[in-house]
């Protein structure tokens, strides 16, 4: 060990103080030379002969010096620096190659980085809070078949009861998001700011320490914490923000602190700008920290008994049970929905990266072939193979670093593009791309890996040198081995592209099937106006009058053909569940599957007419039905078929007055399940949406509708969308997956067509003489094209076959992952595979057009003379 | 230089031993070391300059020999190498290793005797 250290120090010293060592060695050599000369002179040689003889004996001083340097310092460091300089020079010398290689690497690495960033932010990353592993989201859910009743926010007494159980949950943070708050700073209204009302102990419980000022106290009357983003954007990052006042919905709050940069609140798909805390008692969502030694199931059971004892549920209601879900990564409604799509896209971009690597690899090979003569000379001069390989790898590494750097730019663009497709009001800053340790580490790792992937094989091939090649004047341009590796690379590009195309095809067809799917009503010229009677302040007994007024006012707008209301907004997956609502006397005569709930909706007057849902039998609700307390039921076809297979349900006189066509009111992917409609009560407790059918262009009446609704009450109006927009939002996920996978496979096709083009033009160029002779002997155009492209077709055919096998295997392998993402076709759809193959063939033909034309335009005489 | 059949190229590692052994008689410079080895081996062992100096520097880096610029008995400046304490130990170790090796080689090459 000591020995080794001494050697290391000495060599290190020599590397660093190179000139000094050099000088000393030269001195030593010249002293040796002088001694030799003296000796020969003593033996009777003349001075000049003695000198010549001495140099002959001693060797060339320069050569000796080189050898000395190699051994006395770290040759590896020197040679890497040398390789680096050399590689830079070579890359500069062929800007076209460098640009194409860097760009395609940037695409491949960038796509992976973008996906990683999204996956990381949405699925992996922990909140920047203390002990995120012990955080749980506390909520309640109803038990019952097919029921989806949840309580996400708890009234203040329940919050206090939970907070009191410190042996179960040591800390509790309460929060609730304000719905479109009116924020003013210095009297200036702020557009679309996200505000959360939080409990006084919110920041302390989470363990989030403001970077400026302090966290609110429980005793604070009207304290506010601003986000880092708002602080920077609106307060110029000034320290005197503390003590300034903001107003939210007319109430004034004093800013006491600034949140850390990466803290956006507990919900990860919202970027909260402002947290306000006051003594006002409002229902709050709860995130709690498990007490030491308590597990989530234990806490769940303990809290359940505490709450059900203190707050016994009202009879005849579905009992709610406590649910504690891990909240360390933040809460998200999107996470569950987007987990699989993101994983599927990750698989696709991995394939894209492989295509990129093989593409750059084959580009490198072509270039190395051109440099073959130079290499042969270097080997002949004694360069070692490892030295040459390291030299190539340095070049690959440089390309990967350049590609990786550019990839960060692409990734930022990619993430913001993908985020824009999310069904959110605004792309949240909390999910945005940022260059931090994780993304940088990922990008660096992927770049390094791809450098090895695309660099090693060509380097190995290129440095396999047969010195006899040096003899031929031209220098052999390639060896059979190099050609074979090049073909394997192009064939694997084709195969990978087929896999990519099959994946993209599945998602594109899913999107097409969804957009073409018949929703059962007519979405054209239809608009949905979301309203909220409850938060506008209407209580029991007040909604009916407002509702009738709204229908009358909106219906009176010129350009509006008809209008209706619904409790369950369309395309929002918000249908109610109904069970056993028929009069018990008639139940016996109806063969009902026990306990099975079905979908139901409360609808307003002329609902079926406005929506364009056909009435198949019986009648729809009339205006008179809405003026009485007796409730009628309209069922859909599926309901009638399921529960009254051989009967006429209307004739049974059990309250069913009509049968209408099946619809997909909940969402485009919903099944045409049994469903019932009831007329809204005379005094409904709430109405959530108006459906408006325009006579002409719906955009023409949007402003008028908004104005009328706001004239009734400005706080009623939420938003207005065309039904097409609602449907688009409902399939936003599928649209994103389809668009992204189509984009990725287009990139893949672009790369593979470059590869095929390369192989085709290379073979044509190589066989120019042969083709020229054939033409001179009278070969037809067709024969010439056939001869020139036979090689390429073979390579392509092999790739295609491998691709088909790989695609089938990949689809089989991932069927369980992707089948949920598909609609209207199965993962193993044959037409999809055929389509992918056809696209691939078309692209290959297009890539071969130019080389084939060049083959037919060979001048026979010139080609023969050329040799 | 044209290869001479009667001369033997030095085995890897043996040069180090020869240098250490030569320096046992006292400090010496590169030229004298090469000459000494040639003379004692009756012109069989030729030490190339290209191997001699790397070997000297390697031994110096390992601390087995040290060097200093001195004036030779003929009045010329030259770099003199001398054996260090650890160098002497190394010489003893190397020499016994070499004797074992050559004895073993001899047994293998002339098993009849």
Description:
The complex is a heterodimer of chains A (867) and B (113). Chain A has 867 residues and is of the alpha+beta class. In chain A, 53% of the residues lie in helices and 14% in strands. The longest helix of chain A has 38 residues, at 781-818. Chain A is globular. The model of chain A is unreliable at 583-594 (pLDDT under 50). Chain B has 113 residues and is of the alpha+beta class. Helices cover 52% and strands 14% of the residues of chain B. Chain B has helices at residues 14-23, 30-40, 49-61, 85-109; strands at residues 28-29, 65-71, 77-83. A three-stranded antiparallel β-sheet of chain B has the order 1-3-2. The model of chain B is unreliable at 1-5 (pLDDT under 50). The interface between A and B is medium-sized, with 25 and 21 residues.
What does the radius of gyration of chain A come to? 38 Å
Instruction: Report the C-alpha radius of gyration of chain B, rounded.
Output: 16 Å
Q: Find the structural class of chain A using helix and strand composition.
A: alpha+beta
Oligomer state of the chains in this structure: heterodimer
How can the largest sheet of chain A be summarized?
14 strands, mixed
Rounded mean pLDDT of chain B is 80
| Total count of helical runs of at least 4 residues of chain A | 26
Number of helices of chain B: 4
Percentage of residues in DSSP E strands of chain B: 5-15%
User: What structural class is derived from the secondary structure elements of chain B?
Assistant: alpha+beta
Helix content of chain B: 40-55%
Largest sheet of chain B: 3 strands, antiparallel
Measured by residues with Cβ under 8 Å of the partner chain's Cβ, the largest interface is: A-B, 25 and 21 residues
How many E strands of chain A? 24
């Amino acid at each position: 060990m000591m020995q080794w250290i001494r050697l290391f120090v000495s060599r290190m010293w020599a590397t660093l103080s190179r000139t000094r060592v050099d000088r000393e060695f030269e001195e030593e050599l010249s002293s040796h030379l002088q001694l030799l000369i003296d000796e020969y002179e003593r033996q009777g040689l003349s001075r000049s002969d003695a000198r010549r003889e001495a140099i002959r004996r001693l060797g060339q001083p320069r050569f000796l010096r080189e050898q000395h340097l190699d051994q006395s310092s770290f040759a590896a460091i020197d040679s890497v620096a040398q390789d680096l300089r050399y590689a830079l020079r070579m890359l500069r010398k062929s800007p076209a190659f460098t640009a194409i290689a860097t760009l395609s690497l940037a695409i491949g690495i960038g796509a992976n980085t973008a996906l990683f960033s999204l996956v990381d932010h949405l699925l992996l990353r922990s909140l920047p809070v203390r002990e995120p592993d012990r955080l749980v989201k506390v909520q309640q859910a109803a038990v019952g078949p097919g029921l989806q009743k949840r309580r996400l926010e708890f009234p203040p007494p329940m919050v206090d009861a939970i907070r009191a159980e410190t042996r179960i949950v040591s800390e509790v943070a309460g929060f609730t998001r304000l719905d479109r708050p009116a924020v003013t700073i210095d009297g200036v209204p702020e557009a679309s700011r996200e505000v959360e009302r939080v409990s006084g102990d919110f920041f302390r419980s989470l363990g989030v320490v403001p970077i400026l000022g302090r966290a609110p106290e429980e005793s604070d009357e009207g304290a506010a914490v601003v986000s880092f983003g708002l602080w920077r954007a609106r307060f110029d990052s000034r320290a005197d923000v503390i003590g300034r006042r903001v107003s939210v919905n007319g109430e004034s709050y004093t800013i006491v602190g600034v949140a850390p940069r990466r803290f956006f609140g507990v919900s990860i798909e919202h970027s909260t700008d402002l947290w306000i805390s006051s003594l006002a008692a409002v229902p709050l969502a709860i995130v709690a920290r498990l007490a030491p030694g308590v597990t989530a199931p234990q806490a769940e059971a303990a809290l359940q008994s505490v709450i059900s004892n203190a707050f016994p549920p009202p009879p005849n209601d579905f009992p709610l049970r406590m649910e504690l879900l891990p909240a360390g990564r933040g809460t998200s409604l999107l996470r569950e929905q987007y987990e699989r799509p993101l994983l599927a896209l990750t698989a696709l971009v991995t394939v894209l990266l492989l295509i990129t690597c093989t593409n750059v690899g084959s580009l490198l090979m072509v270039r190395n072939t051109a440099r073959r003569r130079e290499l042969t000379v270097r080997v002949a001069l004694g360069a070692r193979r490892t030295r040459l390989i390291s030299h190539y790898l340095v070049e690959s590494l440089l390309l990967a670093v350049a590609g990786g750097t550019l990839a960060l730019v692409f990734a930022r663009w990619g993430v913001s593009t993908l985020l824009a497709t999310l069904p959110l009001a605004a792309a949240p800053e909390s999910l945005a791309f940022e260059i931090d340790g994780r993304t940088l580490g990922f990008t660096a790792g992927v770049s390094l890996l791809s450098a090895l992937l695309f660099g090693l094989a060509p380097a190995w091939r290129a440095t396999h040198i047969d010195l006899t090649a040096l003899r031929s004047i031209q220098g052999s341009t390639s060896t059979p081995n190099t050609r074979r590796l090049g073909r394997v690379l192009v064939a694997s590009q084709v195969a990978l592209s087929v896999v990519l195309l099959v994946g993209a095809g599945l998602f594109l067809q899913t999107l097409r099937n969804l957009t073409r799917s018949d929703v059962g009503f007519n979405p054209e010229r239809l608009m949905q106006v979301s309203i909220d009677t409850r938060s506008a302040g209407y209580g029991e007994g007040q909604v009916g009058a407002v509702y009738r007024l709204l229908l009358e006012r909106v219906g009176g707008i010129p350009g509006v053909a008809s209008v209706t209301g619904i409790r369950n907004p369309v395309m929002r997956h918000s249908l109610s569940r109904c069970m056993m609502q028929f009069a018990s006397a008639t139940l016996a005569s109806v063969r009902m599957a026990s306990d099975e709930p079905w979908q139901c909706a409360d609808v307003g007057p002329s609902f079926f007419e406005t929506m364009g849902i056909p009435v198949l039998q019986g009648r729809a609700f009339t205006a008179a039905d809405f003026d009485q307390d007796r409730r009628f039921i309209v069922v859909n076809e599926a309901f009638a078929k399921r529960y009254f297979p051989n009967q006429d349900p209307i004739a049974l006189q059990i309250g069913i007055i009509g049968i209408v066509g099946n619809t997909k009111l909940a969402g485009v992917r919903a099944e045409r399940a049994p469903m019932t409609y009831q007329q809204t009560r005379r005094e409904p407790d709430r109405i959530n949406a108006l459906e408006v059918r325009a006579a002409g262009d719906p955009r023409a009446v949007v402003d008028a509708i908004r104005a009328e609704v706001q004239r009734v009450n400005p706080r009623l109006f939420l938003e207005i969308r065309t039904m097409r927009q609602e449907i688009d939002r409902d399939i936003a996920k599928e649209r994103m997956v389809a668009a992204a996978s189509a984009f990725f496979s287009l990139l893949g096709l672009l790369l593979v067509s470059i590869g095929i083009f390369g192989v085709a033009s290379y073979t044509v160029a190589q066989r120019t003489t042969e083709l020229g002779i054939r033409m001179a002997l009278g070969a037809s155009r067709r024969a010439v094209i056939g001869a020139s492209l036979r090689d390429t077709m073979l390579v392509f055919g092999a790739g295609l076959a491998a691709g088909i096998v790989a695609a089938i295997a990949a689809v089989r392998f991932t069927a369980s992952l992707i089948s949920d993402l598909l609609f209207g076709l199965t993962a193993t759809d044959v037409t999809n595979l055929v389509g992918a193959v056809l696209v691939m063939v078309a692209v290959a033909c297009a890539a071969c057009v130019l080389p084939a034309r060049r083959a037919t335009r060979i001048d026979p005489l010139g080609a023969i003379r050329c040799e | 230089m044209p290869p001479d059949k009667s001369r033997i190229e030095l085995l890897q590692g043996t040069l180090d031993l020869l240098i250490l052994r030569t320096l046992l008689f006292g400090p010496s410079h590169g030229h004298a070391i090469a000459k000494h080895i040639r003379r004692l081996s009756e012109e069989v062992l030729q030490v190339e300059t290209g191997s001699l100096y790397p070997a000297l520097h390697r031994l110096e880096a390992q601390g087995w020999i040290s060097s200093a610029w001195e004036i030779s008995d003929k009045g010329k400046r030259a770099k003199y190498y001398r054996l260090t304490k650890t160098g002497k130990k190394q010489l003893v170790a190397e020499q016994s290793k070499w004797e074992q090796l050559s004895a073993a080689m001899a047994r293998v090459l002339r098993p009849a005797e």
